[in-house]
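Dock pyridoxal-5'-phosphate; give full complex structure.
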Amino acid sequence: MSRTVYVNDSFLPEENATVSIFDRGFLFADGVYEVTAVLDSKLVDFAGHVTRLERSLNELKMELPISSEELLNVHRELIKRNNLEEGAIYLQITRGAADRDFAFPKDTKQTIVLFTQAKPLSAPKSGIRIISAPDIRWGRRDIKTVQLLAPSLTKMIAKAEGKDDAWMVEDGFVTEGTSCNAYIVTKEGKIITRDLSTSILHGITRAAILKLAAEMDMEIEERAFTIKEAQQAAEAFVTAATAFVNPVIEIDGVELSGGAPGPVVTRLSQLYIEESRKAAM
Ligand code: PLP
């Protein structure tokens, strides 16, 4: 069934939606994106995603082309028009179309595109098997740009080995998953995840999980860890807007928590879904 999508002020059937071949998103990956989860036809952490979007745009000397209220309305309208109960809304904003030149063009109209993706998010997860791989991305991973070839290639290395994903490693330490933040849980129940910097994306789900864990009086340490430390951990997991909390049950061939989701990750996952359902708007 054809979706209704949003392109530059219009809602239209996906087969009629077009963007210029001169769009700088296409030519230079000169654009940013956000992915917001939808649960019970409501948006999860919309405010967090808009705040990060504005930051990403600002870092690339762009602005939000419509108000955050209009953006919320477009998200809600897409949920309605596509009868979306569970899944995600993808949003992309680029600098717009201009004749090809490395210098930023002046006074172009930015391109804004949104579409829905239906997928089950809240079903129980059996866990993923991951490998480690070198982090070959650029140095500003805190900006959510659409230049995703490096993580895409890295994911394909994992797939070629029959695994689900890769944790990327730089200078001996895990940065994050190809499209998720990475965590380990020590035998004492402490959660360890990399501290925020330009080396990783500042996950909206990460912020929510760390808040939840703190409310549960769990100990949290924000610091880099190695693959070896991860392989010796009691449990491990990843978070992302469309993965929620996903257990990691194998790292480079070493099984964790008996090859099944462990108790801490299972509890965090349930709580995250409960809290997200309550707060979704
Ligand atoms: N890290 C990377 C590299 C990502 O691409 C993503 C999501 O796309 C995340 C982390 C998780 O961020 P969020 O929880 O905001 O979806």
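Observed: The mean pLDDT is 97.
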